[in-house]
Design brief:
Layout: H1 2-11, E1 25-27, E2 35-40, E3 44-50, E4 53-55, E5 58-64, E6 70-81, E7 85-93, H2 94-99, E8 105-106, E9 111-116, E10 119-121, E11 132-141, E12 146-157
Length: 158
Amino acid sequence: MKRLVLIALILVPLACATHRPDSAKSKTTPGHGEITLTITPNPVLANSAGGSAYDFPIDVVVKETGGHPVTIDRVSANVYAGGGIPVATESYDAAKIQSLGFATTIQAKGEVRYHFDPRKDVPDERLFSSVYGDVRVEGTDDNGSRTSTTTTITVKKK
């Protein structure tokens, strides 16, 4: 279980997610703020750093596409082992996101970009072939309307 939690930690820092057109789901109200999530590379590539340590370089882009400023309220990740067995859930509210040094406000038609390169210990390489999940970003626009987007998470050993 500890090993799977380590994999989950890899996927959570605002989410090592893979954006695929068929796997992204947004919920918004027409005429209000809307957000999309893109993460590159697709899939996230685990680079060996020696021994059981791996680097997971990713770029995260959250865009506002509805024409209204949006404040990010929460980012959460759910990680599953093969067969859909829940392994871990992690959630960051706006205060936690800001404490990490990231912006939580997106201007109308704007975007925020984050770069992560976490190094994590992965003692069992077989986990790379069976871990997947989803990342959800939730926000509120300047009119108080809720918006969210969800995308699929994948990880692959380089």
